[in-house]
Amino acid sequence: MTDHYDLITIGAGSGGVAASRRAAALGAKVAIIEGRRVGGTCVLRGCVPKKLLMYAAQYGDAFAEARGYGWTLGEATFDMARWAQSKAAETTRLEGIYRKLLEGSGVTLIEGYGRLDGPQRVVVGDRPLSAPHILIATGSSPVIDSIPGIAQCATSDDLLDLTELPATAAIIGGGFIAIEFASMLARLGVQVTLFFRDRAPLRGFDESLRVAAASALQAAGVQVRAGLVPSRIERSSQGLLLEFGEERVLEFPWVLNATGRRPNTAGLGLDLTPQGAVPIDAGMRTALPGVYAIGDVTNRKNLTPVAIAEGRALVESLFGPVPREVDLSLVPSAVFLIPPIATVGPTEDEAVAAGHRLKIFETDFRPMRQAFFGGQERAHMKLLVDADTDRVLAVHMMGADAPEIVQSLAVALTAGATKAHFDRTIAMHPTAAEEFVLMREVSRHVPPATTPATAPA
Ligand code: NDP
């Protein structure tokens, strides 16, 4: 017998759960299908455990700082097994909360893998379900075929399940995951060599942040090998051999593959983009009537809050009084290296290409907390201001608490703040954040590109 619903969501990660609960609150009868644990990548294998490892790594710096602040400490050692045990308990607790939230919202959880089975139909095992609206929220998984042999390397999932850290490690990739884990592992006592193919890490970020990130990694003891990635990887008796062309081979006991993630589309039967993602329109509709997709499976902006915003906008359009689209023109994001990066708005290059005449306000300094004990960590802040309208187009920062600061400034940018608004804001002293309202001197004037591109800004 077929069970009927108003909405069937495939995938109980952050986006799928948020959409399903909001739909149920709007009166829809909802089923959500999950083949692994409830909570998805962010809660169980990504953002949350990653940030808990970052907190662990930050203690390494804090112990050194504490001495400069008058503390006497004994020898500090890190026990990955104890961290792993606490992390497992925490993710189990969070999974329990997610299950309770679904139950409390009246959403039916169906465990197993769902696949589309004709119009308005989904099958889980041999259980048929039907609904006029089907939401694909299946997320993404690590790419394991980017380089011959890379499937033998660890992924971020494996790293977060380690109970013992290697003494030496190689990391391949220069994106979010590579940079965050290089920074953390170095502080936890691992000798890290980072290989990426571009001239600087974090392609797509503002140049100032890319340069600052490379310096911060080097300062943490990471060997940064820009413009160099292995062409093949082979297993050896001691670990893994990274082959660079014909003659050069380096051996590492442990290697992290951080070469990107790919949408989970197996068994869905949908047409895909050349990058393997489910294409959607502004209303999150796929090419199949009544089938929608949100989050990483669409490979637009692969960030948890975006998936949640997309899911809620979709179900409010389907079951609420007023349809709405989600505005992704100003999405803040953070890279949790130490110190972290946070950004909202276009890079300088993107703003110039979009035809803006820019005033750039930039500062780079050693925060009070560092200066006191002789620490060398710096803070870098940058504002992009449209010289014609005075609108603040972007905020870029690397430094302690950058994600907390930039999240708040993102509200101002969303509200259309001008540089005059920043100048009128009274500073809060003594903070690092006050520098954002105290930058008065233009650092540089930048003309627009002669042929503006159509890039959004
Ligand atoms: P990214 O897309 O950020 O980075 C992938 C990296 O792998 C890039 O440096 C890329 O190089 C490199 N790469 C890709 N293919 C190859 C290849 N064949 N050979 C060598 N290098 C290669 O992916 P991540 O895996 O780091 O993260 C996945 C997604 O997860 C991110 O896009 C992000 O949206 C999300 N995420 C967000 C976090 C946050 O919000 N803090 C944290 C972690 C992940 P190149 O640049 O040259 O293409």
Detail the topology: elements first, then pairings.
Elements: E1 3-4, E2 7-10, H1 14-25, E3 30-34, H2 40-44, H3 47-68, H4 80-105, E4 108-111, E5 114-116, E6 121-124, E7 127-130, E8 133-136, E9 140-142, H5 156-159, E10 168-172, H6 176-187, E11 191-196, H7 207-219, E12 223-226, E13 232-235, E14 240-244, E15 248-252, E16 255-257, E17 261-263, E18 291-293, H8 304-319, E19 333-335, E20 341-344, H9 348-353, E21 358-365, H10 368-373, E22 379-386, E23 392-398, H11 402-414, H12 419-424, H13 435-438, E24 444-446
Parallel strand pairs: 1-7, 2-3, 2-8, 3-4, 8-18, 10-11, 10-16, 11-12
Antiparallel strand pairs: 5-6, 6-7, 9-17, 13-14, 14-15, 19-20, 20-23, 21-22, 21-24, 22-23
Helix pairs in contact: 1-4, 1-8, 3-6
The chain binds NADPH dihydro-nicotinamide-adenine-dinucleotide phosphate.
Residues 146-147, 173-178, 180, 196-198, 203, 229, 258-261, 302-303, 333-336 line the site of NADPH dihydro-nicotinamide-adenine-dinucleotide phosphate (NDP).
